[in-house]
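Appendix B, example 12.
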Amino acid sequence: MAVILVAEPDDTPGPGVYRAMVVGVQERHRNGQTFLLWELQIEHGDRVVTLTYPTPTRTTPANRTGRLLSALLGRAIEPGERIAVNDLIGLGARIKVERAGSWLRVVDVQPDAL
């Protein structure tokens, strides 16, 4: 019996700007460093794709964590402000993604314009 394979089109999201929703946050450890791994969902055609976005646990207004928090909250974060990351589940932001080899990499976050 012959096996016939049909090449499917590549339907992975390409580089661009997408509306993303936070669906999870995990604390991770690697090489003695602790970081947060954000799970962000985007819609691509008729399916939902989950991307991960690692950020440091140290938060400043200018680093990746601070920019993501500001985008999700729609305002600047304040020095000394305490934010429970679980309260951010379900919030959205605009993310810009680029290809990094066969992976998509989040390179920028902005407040959700909608």
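Residues 64-73 form the longest helix (10 residues). Residues 4 and 10 are 19 Å apart (CA to CA).
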